[in-house]
Amino acid sequence: xxxxxxxxxxxxxxxxxxxxxxxxxxxxxxxxxxxxxxxxxxxxxxxxxxxxxxxxxxxxxxxxxxxxxxxxxxxxxxxxxxxxxxxxxxxxxxxxxxxxxxxxxxxxxxxxxxxxxxxxxxxxxxxxxxxxxxxxxxxxxxxxxxxxxxxxxxxxxxxxxxxxxxxxxxxxxxxxxxxxxxxxxxxxxxxxxxxxxxxxxxxxxxxxxxxxxxxxxxxxxxxxxxxxxxxxxxxxxxxxxxxxxxxxxxxxxxxxxxxxxxxxxxxxxxxxxxxxxxxxxxxxxxxxxxxxxxxxxxxxxxxxxxxxxxxxxxxxxxxxxxxxxxxxxxxxxxxxxxxxxxxxxxxxxxxxxxxxxxxxxxxxxxxxxxxxxxxxxxxxxxxxxxxxxxxxxxxxxxxxxxxxxxxxxxxxxxxxxxxxxxxxxxxxxxxxxxxxxxxxxxxxxxxxxxxxxxxxxxxxxxxxxxxxxxxxxxxxxxxxxxxxxxxxxxxxxxxxxxxxxxxxxxxxxxxxxxxxxxxxxxxxxxxxxxxxx
Length: 533
Hints:
Helix content: 10-25%
Low-confidence stretches: 1-7, 448-453
Number of helices: 10
């Protein structure tokens, strides 16, 4: 059945007709959308509340000027930093949440990421559950989200109980040459695990057309493994699952004693609506989930819901990232560039004892995108000239683990205004990682006797780049140092759960999406068991 038309086969309205449900899920991204799918077969009544609407399918989905320069799909939110300076975060409020714009890079955390790890700026804390608990859920997450990959290439990959469910995406010639060159230098490049509905063996029946509009764009043909296409739409195949869009949850009401959430208060098209759930799940993204809990303070919970520990909103992380565009003499005609990743420096090397991080290829850059990345630097350059530069680019995304810090936090005022106080960590490790990559590429160019060395454009992801945000409601066994228990239920309330990236105790150096999806499946299994008659 076509993923795009599944919801048309249901026999009941998609919008809720009543007010009471077994489970109310706030947010429809990789966490909330996946949880809805995990619960759909249970027969439980499920309501998904999404702040935004359906992302329109339109030609502008793939227009880099609209997406990168005009920010067509970015929310109108305004946040403040710790100095009171306003900024517009790169948030996206649609069915599918932030996953509508992500690059569908689906990595498992390394096995060691679940342990305590010393970094140049301090300790990355141990997780209360280890890799072996998540492994079967990673397996199902890779299946649901169409993850392509190949076990055995990455020397730091964790053990897996099965192969990837889909064959690795083939390298185009320039990427294959890069892989061969990296291997000749002693590195271990591997096929980047990517979640797209691609069928290279039978292209006529492939939803994915292998375009260069995967990373940072919404997928016009619904072939990207995002929370809408792989989570919400399959869930809506079931008559017991309902969705209300343009529904901003403004407050969670508790019973008089503060033991459980009694009502979910929603602003829907200018009107207030209220819903009840035996279970209420918050999955609005790390910053907005914390905001909602803090905004729901009452006499029983004066600091905000689930905040007896004063940990809600703290330990905000979002990776120390750099986008590096390397311009070389040799042209790069690659279309789908997201097929190569490198982890050789993930935990350090002989010259640097601390973890440095992860390298992957991004979607292929073009001139309009480069102008969006560097608007001031490229303001006077016509797009055609930037296109000429982009024809010679190799485009890398570099991630260093961001450490949890109590003062890196989300706070809100009485009007719900978010203040994001943040100071980056592991800057030296990030610099070492960039130095390793640039040095290696320079050697490879000299080895190949090219006339020109590389020129690098390195863009640091500023505070507004909130795509990998996590950590504001960490899970754990100690209610004084964590917000959630091991099943992601709030320590302080009997029926409140948080199922998005908020639960992360540490960020690791790989994308958080697959771990979020796997955890949502895990929590879904728990909820079915809890609610069964």
